[in-house]
Amino acid sequence: MLVPRGAWAKISGKIKAKVKDIPIIASNRVNMPETMSRILKDQEADILSMARPFLADPDILNKIKANQEERINTCIACNQACLDHTFKEQMVSCLVNPSANRELELSKLKKADKKHVVVVGSGPGGLESARISAIRGHKVTVLEATDKIGGQLNLAAQIPGKSEFLETIRYFKNELKNLGVEIHFGYQATLDSILALKPDAVIFATGVKPREFTLPGIEKKKTASYADYLSGKFQPGNKVVVIGGGGIGCDVAHKLTEEDSSTIDSYFHRYNVTSYTNAQIQKEKPNRKVSIFRRSGKIGSGLGATTAWALLQELESKEVGFYTSLSYKEVTDQGLVIETKKDGAQTIECDSIILCAGQLSEVSLYEEFKSKVP
Fold first, then answer.
1. Torsions phi, psi of 203, nearest 5?
2. Which residues form the FAD/NAD(P)-binding domain (predicted)?
3. What pLDDT, in 10s, does the model give residues 293-340?
4. What architecture does CATH give domain 212-357?
5. Nearest in space to 13 (alpha carbons), one of 44, 35, 38
6. Do 63 and 171 form a contact (C-beta atoms < 8 A)?
7. Which CATH architecture group holds 109-208+360-374?
8. Percent helix, strand and coil across the chain, each rounded to 5?
């Protein structure tokens, strides 16, 4: 996801300018019509090669022909269910299209006797549940507590290189509108308010919440969850501690050190793409000092093999500190105190702390509903 759309077509364009009689094919990160048109218009290729976009939306070309570009389920280039699964010898699918590689199985789903389906929550799970329910012929009502759909996709889209998640939200927004799905915004769902809608079925897609984490003295520093930071509710200082070194912690560290996504030119410069002698990423002075902490295991160990190396390389080039195999002791006026077997107790200076210590499923309403409704 760090690679800008159509970036490698700049290279194929240079080849095409020199090779006149052989058709040139451009591939990778060609996922939307405007990128396709630009590459062909700028004569950077004769033919476009696409693979992942067809997993995300097998009808992408038909939608382009029908001038229905707003209905395209855009490939977000995450690699999580396609390439990462391939290298682990698992079944290939798609993060934004769970029916990919299950077409024969899911094509057996028949039109249902029409019922009223209420979906609580409009994150990706709720949105897809609403879409499929509507396709099967049900009347669908979505209850969303905030003023927009997407759930934590809205947070993920704030990470540099991950704005493609906004395309997923755009896709669902248009699909649900076309299918006649009714969405209630600012709706604080309760047992009584759900039952008042007289549903025949209720789907709970209420997502997750940040796991709470505390330490003695933590109130001495500006502290927030990753959700508050990514939503713009929290402004960190210049020396930031990130507690939690999984995927979310790495993404937060990335945003802390680089606010914006790369352009093609800035990406090529940073990765020395056109250099024949230097294949190393350009180190850049970070806009703040960031340190990531994880009790055990490697930083970013849960990231996919095809993307982990690039993200970790980004963080290292911004001088992000990695601390693992440790215990948290306290927070003092100076910073976070940790202890390791090798170095004993040490204090890492900071003025802000962002908590990325995991997530918990938000199931309280579901559990209440299940216990009181037959």
1. -110, 120
2. 116-367
3. 999 999 999 899 999 999 999 999 999 999 999 999 999 999 999 999
4. 3-Layer(bba) Sandwich (3.50)
5. 44
6. no
7. 3-Layer(aba) Sandwich (3.40)
8. 35, 20, 50
